[in-house]
Design brief:
The structure is a single chain. This protein is an alpha+beta fold. The protein has three domains: 68-175, Nuclear Transport Factor 2, Chain: A; 181-257, Immunoglobulin-like; 263-392, Nuclear Transport Factor 2, Chain: A. The chain contains six helices and 18 strands. The strands form four sheets. It has a five-stranded antiparallel beta sheet. It starts with 42 loop residues before the first helix and ends in an 11-residue tail after the last strand. The model is unreliable at 27-34 (pLDDT under 50).
């Protein structure tokens, strides 16, 4: 032990320096701590750290939960449930579609409103194990049984992974829309006519170069499959309408050759046809010549109508029988067929008649019950207007037997 005053070495345990008498240190000197003494953590700090840890745990949980909602299996199941229940909003949200006039949610709702729902009793989702986890496409198979049936059915849902993430974080899987969309769908319309599908105009931007003198061809790039109402207005102003069943797939087509007349147009044509047919029958009964009535028909059609009239006159009169009167009770256009610049109408006529016939030396009269016959009326376009060009298959046989 050394003296702290003079530096003299002393024996171990000595209390005073043997040279200078200075009191020696008897306790070991401890090294000073190089670390500072920790202060106790404040309550506010503990609360902040605890809250931060809680938020991190919640965020991780939310991330994992949301991620589980966007797996191919979950998206396929959402599509399946929406498809079977006709839920247009949910169904549309699973699809990757480029919206247009003929591809949108409102049109999908319209198409699904009359479609029967599939009532599912139970189902099972089968994961696609054939694809790698990082594959850009998936196939999910859903096996299901409908209510009231024991037969298992299968729905295959094909999905594609999109480049754009869901909420910038999650894989964005969408269902292949090919079973709901028709591509490059062709519609052929009478030349220079206009048309709408469910009220949506088929614009000229869809018109293709086409060599036909009688039809215009339109190609719609994409249209939702379903049943549509098509309305066509001919350049003469005649309005037609009908139904179009658009099936999914590529290069489907529809030709507006068999349509029904719009009710207002139909009524006007029925009145015109009734007037002309009554004129023909009554003039034949009165034994008038065609020259007596030719002004009632278009000049270019008179030759054909004259031939019809001649046959009618000879048919209603014979040596033993003569048509005395005809009462046309109803004229109804059953169908319309477009052929180039002609319209052919199939017309149903209800009528009663009286005939005078010879029974031996006695002249008798027979009154019929109501009869029904069909005949045809052709309209031809002339100066942007359709005129009657022919009336064929008018009944010329009037029996005096009750059958």
């Amino acid at each position: 032990m050394f003296c702290g005053e003079c530096g003299t070495k002393n024996e171990k345990g000595a209390l005073f320096c043997e040279k200078c008498g200075h009191k020696l240190e008897t306790e070991e000197v401890t090294k000073k701590s190089t670390t500072k003494e920790k202060k106790p953590m404040k309550k506010e700090q503990k609360i902040i750290i605890g809250a931060a840890a809680f938020v991190i745990v919640v965020l991780i949980g939310v991330y994992m939960y949301l991620g589980s909602l966007f797996t191919p299996e979950k998206v396929a199941l959402k599509y399946f449930k929406a498809y079977t229940s006709n839920n247009a909003d949910a169904l549309y949200s699973t699809l990757n579609l480029e919206e247009s006039k003929f591809v949108n949610k409102d049109l999908l709702k319209e198409n699904l409103k009359d479609k029967d729902k599939i009532k599912v009793a139970n189902y099972k989702v089968i994961k696609d194990d054939e694809k790698e986890e990082d594959s850009l496409s998936k196939k999910v198979v859903i096996e299901y049984v409908e209510e009231g049936s024991s037969k298992e059915k299968t729905k295959v849902v094909r999905l594609t992974k999109n480049k754009k993430k869901k909420f910038l974080l999650f894989d964005n899987w969408t269902v292949d829309s090919s079973e709901l969309v028709a591509t490059k769908y062709t519609i052929s319309l009478p030349k220079d006519s206009t048309a709408t599908i469910n009220g949506i105009k088929i614009s000229d931007k869809y018109k293709e170069d086409y060599s036909s003198s009688y039809y215009d061809k339109y190609v719609i790039p994409n249209i939702l499959s379903g049943k549509y109402t098509i309305k066509v207005e001919l350049k003469s102003g005649i309005k037609l309408e009908g139904n179009v069943n658009v099936n999914s797939g590529s290069y489907g087509s529809y030709s507006a050759s068999n349509l029904n007349l719009e009710e207002k147009t139909k009524k006007a044509l029925q009145e015109e046809i009734t007037e002309k047919v009554k004129l023909l029958y009554n003039s034949a009964i009165e034994d008038k010549t065609f020259d007596d009535i030719k002004e009632s028909f278009d000049e270019d059609s008179r030759d054909d109508i004259s031939y019809i009239y001649s046959n009618l006159k000879s048919g209603i009169t014979s040596s033993y029988k003569k048509l005395k009167s005809i009462d046309i009770t109803d004229i109804n256009i059953k169908s319309v067929s477009l052929n180039d610049e002609k319209i052919r109408l199939t017309v149903n006529m209800k009528y009663k008649y009286k005939v005078e016939y010879q029974s031996g030396d006695e002249t008798k009269e027979y009154s019929s019950s109501e009869k029904t016959d069909n005949f045809y009326v052709d309209y031809t376009l002339k100066d942007k207007k359709y005129v009657i060009s022919n009336i064929s298959s008018l009944n010329t046989y009037f029996s005096y037997y009750n059958y």
